[in-house]
Design a protein that fits this description.
about 200 residues; alpha/beta; Maf protein; 5 helices; 7 strands; about 30% helix; globular; binds 2'-deoxyinosine 5'-triphosphate; binds magnesium ion; ribonucleoside triphosphate phosphatase activity; nucleotide metabolism
Length: about 200
């Protein structure tokens, strides 16, 4: 019998990646949209708080265990912005084109060496809405911000995120490669270790 886990996200790009990344496990992972769960309010001041808020909200609405992802990009030249506000950087939540355009504009004329950035992904797994010990995992992916968009794969900031180890943007990588290298892949590997330590796998 496979256990159902709700994926506490309404982001289609993330949901696709999780489907691929989680296919090796014996869980049935269903996006919260299947249960008509709407976005939780992301009022936290850290990725960790927001991930817990989202996971708790999905547990509350469905009565099932849930996994949430709060992620974003930290740009050194902007002292860490957009960070936890990545999805709403240009104002409208989830407008990737506007977010990318604003980030390129803020970095106009900034030399390559000062364009360093990293993606963060924090995962929170909760067994139920009152779970006092959510499992938290965190992965990062180092790169820098390009001067213009490149590539059509992925989502969000992928077209303007340069991956030094591959010499191209993350939107130019086949999804299998992104899923080996990304902040999300690393966080998930950490989550799996925590599941193993708790004898959940
Ligand atoms: O691999 C990635 N490649 C490109 N961009 C990415 C990635 N991972 C996160 N990001 C960006 C997208 C969004 O601007 C923000 C996440 O915001 P975040 O609130 O966690 O997600 P969201 O509101 O889109 O969906 P939801 O909260 O329903 O999971 O960081
Ligand atoms: Mg969100």
């Amino acid at each position: 019998m496979s256990q159902t886990i709700v994926l506490a996200s309404n982001n289609a790009g993330k949901i696709k990646e999780f489907n691929a990344l989680l296919s090796q496990f014996n869980f049935e992972v269903k996006p919260q949209g299947d249960f008509r769960v709407e976005d939780a309010e992301e009022t936290g001041l850290t990725f960790v708080e927001n991930a817990i808020l989202k996971a708790r909200h999905a547990c509350e609405k469905t009565g099932l265990p849930s996994l949430a992802d709060d992620s974003g990009i930290e740009v050194d030249y902007l002292n860490g912005a957009p960070g936890i506000y990545s999805a709403r950087f240009a104002g409208e939540h989830g407008n990737n084109e506007a977010n990318n355009a604003l980030l390129l504009e803020k970095l106009a004329g900034v030399p390559e060496a000062e364009r360093t950035a990293r993606f963060h992904c924090v995962l929170a797994f909760m067994r139920h809405k009152d779970d006092p010990t959510p499992i938290i995992a965190h992965g990062t992916w180092e790169g820098r911000i390009l001067e213009s968009a490149e590539g059509v794969e992925g989502f969000g900031y992928d077209p303007i995120f340069y991956v030094p180890e591959k010499g191209c943007s993350s939107a130019s990588l086949p999804k299998e490669i992104k899923n080996q290298l990304s902040h999300r892949a690393k966080a998930l590997a950490q989550l799996v270790e925590a599941f193993q330590a708790r004898q959940m796998l």
